[in-house]
Amino acid sequence: MTRVPMHLLIAVLNAPDKLDSILAGFVELGVRGATVIHSEGMGRVLSHDIPIFAGLQTLINRSGPENRTILTVISADLIDPVISLIQESCGDLEKPATGIIFTLPVDRVVLATGIIASTEEKVRELRGRCNDLASQIDLSEV
Question: Which residues contact 103 (CB under 8 A, 6 or more apart)?
Fold first, then answer.
């Protein structure tokens, strides 16, 4: 059995309002799961919590205090489409205060495929039950 190379994609988005469209795009691309974390950048933390860095506040041109960090384990062939999707939603990530995306190779994933497989199996089972029930209903009496 050949193993497909897997990668952890981490995307920090400075536009949390784009999250829903990104996650919807993930589903269309075949990304089966992701974790979203509310996060805050170092500049914002320093400017609020450490008085000596208060001048940093003028350098931060975002209105919202939070970022969204997305973590997902995906196959190597999905990296480019996922990054393109995020950039289409958020704009050019090379511009300041937009976000950052990076990937790391993953040596091992435990349970993820089992959970996905069991979920798909449950969906098939429920569809089968629905079909069985539908075939038992006599619509001629309705």
Answer: 7, 8, 9, 10, 79
Residue found under tokens 């919202």: 64
Q: Say how far apart CA 142 and CA 137 lie, in whole Å.
A: 10
Angle between helices 19-29 and 79-90 (to 10 degrees): 150
Place of tokens 């091992």: 108
**Residue 86: Cβ within 10 Å count:** 22
Q: What are phi and psi of 71, to 5 degrees?
A: -120, 130
Q: Which two tokens stand for residue 16?
A: 């949390």
Residue type, 119: T
Higher pLDDT, 53 or 80: 80
Encoded tokens for 68: 């969204």
pLDDT in tens, 85-136: 999 998 888 887 788 999 999 987 775 555 555 555 666 676 777 777 767 7
Burial class (CB in 10 A: 0-12, 13-18, 19+), 80: exposed
Integer Rg of the chain from CA: 22
Q: In angstroms, what CA-CA distances link 67 with 81, 83, 126, 131?
A: 22, 17, 38, 44
